[in-house]
Amino acid sequence: MKNLAVKQNRSVQERLLKTMTAIAQAEAGKTVLAVSHAGALSQFLLALGLEKKMTFFPSNCCVLEFHYEADQFDLVRFIDTLEEKIINL
């Protein structure tokens, strides 16, 4: 990720992916809000293999919007509340 100095932590990534997948499957067809800090968000993005597509740095207070379908997360929007910008992906 651009300007992202985050050490990959495979164990954290696996736990986040497992948990988020379980939530998405249990709440299929619903809108779900999951709240976390920037470090966990960064690890989740790394777990999804999105680091090469990222042009932003997830910070605390940001919003990442995902769609989940066919066992896959799709990042569709990044909202940076600190910089007051929205990036549709």
From TrEMBL:
<dbReference type="InterPro" id="IPR029033">
    <property type="entry name" value="His_PPase_superfam"/>
</dbReference>
<dbReference type="InterPro" id="IPR013078">
    <property type="entry name" value="His_Pase_superF_clade-1"/>
</dbReference>
<protein>
    <recommendedName>
        <fullName>Phosphoglycerate mutase</fullName>
    </recommendedName>
</protein>
<dbReference type="Pfam" id="PF00300">
    <property type="entry name" value="His_Phos_1"/>
</dbReference>
